[in-house]
Fold these 2 entries.
Entry 1:
Amino acid sequence: EALEPWRERFPEVRVAEHVEMGSAGQVLLSMSGRAQLMVVGRRAHRTAVGARIGSVAHGVLHHAGCPVAVVPHD
């Protein structure tokens, strides 16, 4: 249900759904070797020292086996 509005808006984009139990970072890294691009979100809030990313996005950026896009969201 969460993906349906995006599928309708961008029908040409292929999306593969996958549900797996485990920590977010480890699950994403285990899938990264088979992905063409991994997209992870980060909160759009800024701190006094600038934009920051969370531990999952940080781990994926440094250890993924594919390109990674970190996208801010609210």
Entry 2:
Amino acid sequence: PAGATTGPGRPAAPGGGPARSARRPGAPLGGATRTVGLVLALAVLCAVGVATAGERFASVDNVMTILRLAAVYGVLSIGMTFVITGGGIDLSIGSVLGLASIWASTVATQTIAQDTHWGVMVFTALAVGAVCGLVNGVLIAYGRVVAFIATLAMMVAARGLAEIIANRQTQIVEVDAFLDVFRADVLGVSVSVWIFAVVALLGWFVLNRTTFGRRTVAVGGNPEAARLAGIRVQRHTAALYVLAGLTAGVAAVMMLARTGSGSSTHGMLYELDAIAAVVVGGTLLAGGRGSIAGTVLGVLIFSTLTNVFVQNNLSTSAQSLTKGVIIVVAVLLQQQFAARARRT
């Protein structure tokens, strides 16, 4: 009946059930506040850079350097955002990047690319990344192996396979057409930066405007409730790891173009930087909430921080210490937001 309530001051929904909250289930609480905080943090870092390095930091060339540095980490971080939002973790994306770069730069692959089209190298890198992600996803979703263990095993195995294929040697990219395309500038901006921008926009759209994104949040927030709601949790979880593998393949293409070589050492420990950017960006490590915009800002914050340290000739040890402090602060803030959410 009209005017009925299900509790103090809480109106009943049509049909007698409690009215739904205006907030979409799984939507971030205080997301705008967090985004503003990240923007302010980035602005403070830029101000510090200008104050300490002056025109060297503020120059257009240096800004492009920061964006190019952010591009590879950024693409990896987009895939990691989906995995963590879905309640998982992927420690293997750095090693998968290295394996994809090796496989895409073998003599056989480059010979086929020279005889046909440079796209063969791109397809190879993406395929390797997707297959590795599929293996992770099947082990985790259907084999019920803990994500930490499954992806740790892939991290070790992918790096070892890359070393075997390359015989621990660096493989030079000799397909000029490939290098010409991916080293080019479009409107004065590197192609790698454009790739990062496109991947970020696609990631934002998928996470926030599609059924796949809503299911990712639901699976990460409460897998059992998601299953009862009709979501095929196992298949969706596997798809998330395939997506992370694909982003590792894209990052491998970018790394091949940037370095002009494939190497088993490419992507070493990149997964840790990706996780750090995702956490700082506001995605919950426990799953159920993710922010692509926050991840992009997190990547830019760490890239800018690295550049500020380089510009001022500060040690990498101090840089690592600072990153660690930032990550701890971000996790503490996450716990505080979660506690407030439970109270409300």
